[in-house]
Amino acid sequence: MNRFIRKTLFALPLLASLQHAAPVLAAVEIKFGHVGEPGSLFEQSATEFVRIANEKLGDKAKVTAFGSSQLGDDNAMMKKLKLGTIDLALPSSVMSSVDPAFALFEMPYIVKDREHMARIREKVIKPIIYPISEKKGYPILGVWENGFRHITNSKRPIVKPEDLAGIKLRVPQGVWRIEMFKSYGANPAPLSFSEVFVALQTGVMDGQENPISHIWFGRYYEVQKYMSLSRHVYTPAYLVAGAKWKRLDQDIKDALIAAAEEVEPFVAKTAAEIDDKYLGELRKAGIEVNEVDQEAFVKASEPIYAKFAEEVDGGKDMIEQVRALRD
Predict the structure, then answer these.
(1) Residue 277's domain is classified under what CATH number?
(2) Are strands 61-66 and 207-211 parallel, antiparallel or unpaired?
(3) Residue 14: inside a domain, yes or no?
(4) From start to end of 83-206, where are the E strands?
């Protein structure tokens, strides 16, 4: 028997075993982006989601989170979701640019507290806004939190809407927040979250409005003198998917949705703890904190409510539903 025949006969059993061996499949990679800084509510929420999701997914898929705008700002990530270059993102105010229905949460003082928000999530967001978002190409897996927003600036304490007159105020993307602060007399302008600190530091902007988590972890107390506890808007955060969602196996989708919903109470509890802890830290850091005249802000906001009810399809009904869920 020549050498070639001996080698061939030796290799045949090995080839046969390889042909019948089960293929080794790499886990599906789920890329998840958000703008939150280390330690922020977004970062803590994302970390908890990744932990729970990966436990549920086992070796089927692996979720990896990228914070601090590593995958781009909110607008960039929304485009990447559409293109299918990332899988999940955690947008907030920018969703009002996706569909006007999301601007429900641009209405000042419409959300009373986190218990109220939990009822809104089940009775309004899931049955009404989920289908709207899916039609726009952004399926929602869960509703988390950005939080109650407050105003900081370098000029003066804000007590009534007229105190905002002439202040250059950074706001997130979305026409309704711009409309609201214009009606109060401010000069609002949209700017990416990652650019806010430098804009405040250089005087391009006089102030901004954000939840306590972002104010603390964004270190705005270093470049702002006054913080006014306005609680003017509560902004949910939406865990959304994009173009790649349809291509995922159903068991992977189910695990991701279950994990997103399981995180919801953790987010609310963590958000409340952050508000309590870091408001105290902001005071210690030297920022001057004051309460606002909420009644004056609510009265000044009436035209915004009227415009939303008139211009947004179903807007009046949604406002009435949310108000009915207050108590």
Answers:
(1) 3.40.190.170
(2) unpaired
(3) no
(4) 88-89, 140-153, 168-171, 187-190
* Residue 96 half-sphere exposure toward CB, CA atoms < 13 A: 21
Residue 215 identity (one-letter amino acid)? I
Query: What is the tens place of the pLDDT at every residue in 241-257?
Result: 999 999 999 999 999 99
- Are 208 and 169 spatial neighbours (Cβ–Cβ below 8 Å)? yes
What pLDDT, on the 0 to 100 scale, is given for residue 119? 98
Closest CA to 211 of 150, 269, 273: 150
Q: Is residue 65 part of a domain?
A: yes
For residue 12, being part of any structural domain is answered with: no
Q: Which two tokens stand for residue 116?
A: 């109220």
Does some domain include residue 15?
Answer: no
As beta bridge partners, residue 171 has 190
Token readout for 304 is 């915004």
pLDDT at residue 27, as a whole number:
87
Q: Domain tally for the chain? A: 1
Question: pLDDT tens digit string along 52-77?
Answer: 999 999 999 999 999 999 999 999 99
Write the pLDDT tens digit of every residue in 2-33: 554 444 444 445 444 545 544 545 689 999 99
Q: For residue 301, give its domain range.
A: 27-324
